[in-house]
């Protein structure tokens, strides 16, 4: 009897099989000339066919958005195609485009979690949707929930930034996405919302029509829009409260409320901030203004060094000295800085 020989490639596959993820296995096989069609390939082919039917590949815009994996992997850019003929009527394509990304075919939904935790975006406690309805939702196509990271306001030309998340990520027991939560916190949400599983970041212009706009990885990692987000969200909140007639929540330093900080106190209006620093009566203080920083020193002693929350107009910055009635050997340095943008700051420093 002759002994059968196992091909070397087959042996290599078997040895690697236990250690590789599905994605790594597919890439490994493709690199060796084996033709494999994945569900992603079929979706891409269907999208290309739809694009061609809409008027040809040359008649489409490619819109970029960013994927934030819940795993410690690099952020990546992805794309969605939009027909140029539907540029002004397409709306937010990501709400439909991302449904397959959140589809789950296995039975991992834990409805008991609703007894103690509301779904993301809910402000009124646990959901009252029946278990049978939720289970049917979980077993069907993915459901995309939109979280407004930056609201559309006049100062950003009505162009907002959204997070797209799995609506029932909690029920699927998906892990928390720490990087997406940190991004939300940098945008002024403190504490940040609980975000489960993979999260996607997209930009949408809301006026004059609704449509997706490019967002790149480098912007998500540290773009200028992140620094302005909290101020723009407050701008949106102020506008909303003005329309509804409700009273906006008290913000630090507003309504004449003096906020105490280490070495100084401060108040604000929509137009300016005022900082008060107690200093010795002599020598004369040195006050240095920069668009994003403020420094107060008396002789060699630095009293205050602040990195401001937002920009100030240096031409509108002044200071005066007031006598401290309680202490004759002490004065109060009163600094007034005009804001570059007439909006409320959530805090005075970054």
Strand content: 25-35%
Q: What string, H for helix and E for strand, traces the elements in order?
A: HHHEEHHEEHEEHHEEEEEEEE
- The global form is elongated
Mean pLDDT: 78
In helices, the fraction of residues equals 10-25%
Secondary-structure-based class equals: alpha+beta
- Low-confidence segments: 1-14, 53-57, 113-117, 121-127, 243-249
Q: Mind describing the biggest β-sheet?
A: 6 strands, antiparallel
Q: How many beta strands in the DSSP annotation? A: 14
Q: What is the overall number of helices?
A: 8
The span between the termini is: 79 Å
What Rg, in angstroms, do the CA atoms define?
Answer: 28 Å
Model description:
By secondary structure, the protein is of the alpha+beta class. 24% of the residues lie in helices and 28% in strands. The protein contains eight helices and 14 strands. It has helices at 8-17, 22-30, 39-55, 94-97, 131-139, 178-186, 217-222, 224-244; strands spanning 60-68, 76-83, 144-150, 159-166, 199-205, 211-213, 259-261, 264-268, 272-280, 286-289, 293-298, 301-307, 312-323, 330-339. The strands form three sheets. Strands 1, 2, 3, 4, 5 and 6 form a six-stranded antiparallel β-sheet that branches. Strands 7-8-9-14-13 form a five-stranded antiparallel β-sheet, with no helix packed on it. The radius of gyration is 28 Å and the shape is elongated.
